[in-house]
TrEMBL record:
<dbReference type="InterPro" id="IPR036291">
    <property type="entry name" value="NAD(P)-bd_dom_sf"/>
</dbReference>
<dbReference type="InterPro" id="IPR051207">
    <property type="entry name" value="ComplexI_NDUFA9_subunit"/>
</dbReference>
<dbReference type="InterPro" id="IPR001509">
    <property type="entry name" value="Epimerase_deHydtase"/>
</dbReference>
<feature type="domain" description="NAD-dependent epimerase/dehydratase">
    <location>
        <begin position="36"/>
        <end position="193"/>
    </location>
</feature>
<dbReference type="Pfam" id="PF01370">
    <property type="entry name" value="Epimerase"/>
</dbReference>
<dbReference type="GO" id="GO:0005739">
    <property type="term" value="C:mitochondrion"/>
</dbReference>
<dbReference type="GO" id="GO:0044877">
    <property type="term" value="F:protein-containing complex binding"/>
</dbReference>
<protein>
    <recommendedName>
        <fullName>NAD-dependent epimerase/dehydratase domain-containing protein</fullName>
    </recommendedName>
</protein>
Amino acid sequence: MGSQVLVPFRGCEDSHRHLKIMGDLGQIVPMKYHPRDVDSIKAVMAKSNVVINLIGREYETRNYSFEEVNHHMAEQLATIAKEHGGILRFIQVSCLGASLSSESRMLRTKAAGEQSILKEFPEATIMRPSTMIGTEDRILNRWAQFAKNWGFLPLVGGGSTKIQPVYVIDVAAAIVNSLKDDGTSMGKIYELGGPEIYTVHELAELMYETIREWPRYVNVPLPVARAIASPREMLLNKVPFPLPTPSVFNLDQINAFSVDNLVSEDALTFEDLSIMPQRLKGYPVEYLMSYRKGGPTFGSTVSEKMRSSEM
Ligand SMILES: NC(=O)c1ccc[n+]([C@@H]2O[C@H](COP(=O)([O-])OP(=O)(O)OC[C@H]3O[C@@H](n4cnc5c(N)ncnc54)[C@H](OP(=O)(O)O)[C@@H]3O)[C@@H](O)[C@H]2O)c1
């Protein structure tokens, strides 16, 4: 859009370097901040007229709870944006399925974050993307890594839960289109799901197909998956050292994936933002080729193998 983009970051100076080349010289401006230092947030917002809150995390750490990251930080941003007086648009990136009654604590805190934002900044727009797929996604990449390391993929509850994964580029386009149209503000909530509904198992098949490995699964019943994932949650604030980041056995995600998570019938969607979301098969999952044994062009997909054995 030609806008200057201020990118607040914490941690390492190098982590955001790749973003700088996504704009002209001086267009992408990383600014160091600390989420618990209000003045540093105000400094980032000082010269802005739009705030897009992308802060969120699907697991807790000993430093940050779900409540702080997904609810209180969002609320704080909305309060500061309101006080600022010149913030015209506030976009909150939430999650599909955010609900105060969700099985998942993360989704409950995302819902609480939405409510607080709309209280502080009623003109805000809420985007609720479904599971996002793209180069740095944390679902197909994680599954592919697990499958390569262990030779199988655990399927919680047989992988029958229905989801509506969405290409990350479409979500970004939805945010941009929303900024171009003030009619999308005033507390509107958009549910952003892809054009196809997959079961978790079907999505895993797409991953296996793309990495050209024969699909191997171990079915893990829901209570067993919860039991495997629970020790991290129980130990989190009880041991004096950080615990490893959860991979496929993340208790909260297991809970989130225990029920279908689809765009509701009466929701505002991509269509209301003039976007036709892309199917995942093909370009959106091509980054998975890097997991192919022998390199990106090596071997053939399962369907290619089946076709050639039929001939
Ligand atoms: N990925 C999905 O499938 C998906 C689906 C639906 C909704 N969402 C939502 O989309 C948004 C963007 O997510 P993403 O997938 O792009 O993940 P991401 O790359 O990990 O981005 C999350 C951002 O939140 C920041 N963050 C997390 N914990 C923080 C903390 N304690 N203090 C300050 N900053 C913190 C991270 O900063 P650091 O880099 O410094 O950690 C990072 O910039 C999030 O709100 C997420 O909940 C994601």
